[in-house]
Design goal:
Structural class: mainly beta
Number of strands: 10
Order of helices and strands: EEEEEEEEEE
Radius of gyration: 14 Å
Length: 118
């Protein structure tokens, strides 16, 4: 996986990306980055992304985005699977969670604050 990068959205904007989910970065640029979303390259302003070179292996803890329509109202925060991007409601403060979709077991990134700007 040499040279591969992953990115996640850092702003609360509807850009066809799940908040907190990591996506493969195809072409990082100073102003715009191509991110692979559902097997389609999506141009995203680079300033709106966090980009890493190591594949993420922890659940992202996400505050409920403003105006979210596909997330139940009672979810004030949730986690996003680092493998398949499934969302799971947070009810307590677990150290690890098994994904109901891909069955992977991953630690929760409590030490990596994820806040949505804008």
């Amino acid at each position: 996986m040499a040279g591969m990068r992953w990115g996640r959205l850092l702003v609360d904007l509807n850009l066809r990306m799940r908040r907190g989910a990591w996506y493969r970065v195809n072409d990082p640029g100073p102003l715009e980055t191509l991110v692979e979303v559902n097997n389609t390259p999506l141009p995203v302003p680079s300033a709106f992304l966090e980009i890493v070179e190591t594949p993420p292996r922890k659940w992202s803890v996400v505050p409920r985005p403003a105006g979210a329509v596909r997330i139940p109202e009672e979810w004030t925060r949730y986690v996003v699977c680092p493998s398949c991007r499934e969302r799971v409601q947070l009810e307590r403060r677990p150290s690890a969670i098994q994904c109901p979709r891909c069955r992977g077991i991953f630690e929760v990134a409590w030490d990596e604050p994820y806040t949505l700007g804008l």
